[in-house]
Amino acid sequence: MNAEEAAALLAHCSGFDNRQPSLAAAKSWAAALHDVPFDEDARAAVASYYTTPPQNPNERLWILPHHVRTLRTKIRNARLENFQYEPVPDETVGEYLARLRGQVKAIASGNATAPTGRLALEGGPSKKFQAELEARGWEVGRPVADTDEEAVQAELIDTVRRSGPLGIECPTCHAAIGKPCKTPGGTSKQPLGKTRTKPHSARLRVANGESELTPEQRAAEEHRRREASARYLAQHPEEIPDAEIVDEEAAS
Predict the structure, then answer these.
(1) pTM exceeds 0.90 for this model
(2) I want to staple 137 with a disulfide (CB 3.0 to 4.6 A). Which of 81, 163, 172, 184 is the partner?
(3) Which stretches are tagged as biased composition: Basic and acidic residues (predicted)?
């Protein structure tokens, strides 16, 4: 941009801010914008600057050369958002660079039509990576939900289908699929009504494909747990709450 072109650009600015262009201002703007051509994008940059209101309503907008440079670059970059290079067979590196610069310049200047659609990713995961995903209960290639409601439903389906103890209903506490186990009794680590940090043993066995315990085995397991509870209470008598004596006659 030379001084004459800068003067024309300043005259365009004066239509917005009523400035009084001068020869000194034109030379200064030409020096600051020596590598920026005076084209429609430069004029559009000025219009874009005055289209946006200032942060302070009492502040007066006053465009400067760096505003023209920045906004002109944004206008041109917006046309290149979906740009994809169109190669030719057997081109050399020099031909590639020349063609690339030519295509970028043509689209950025608006002389060529910019692509309208976004590029779609093609291909898929490797067989090894796909096997790892499927081993963890994920379905490869499933459709992606378009709405939040569909996404929640898909998440619930994934939760139900996942492998492990939570993928089945607990035979002991009957916790639903995807829900953690609960304990019927209360301890310092697992109070009544709280979820268990680990699933019940029966749930783990079923998830691992092991057979369920026989009635004799269940009775032995229950007996073992009762003895363990009795030993714990014997070692910690202070945790046993005092019994509350109720006078039945007074209560009646």
Answers:
(1) no
(2) 163
(3) 218-229
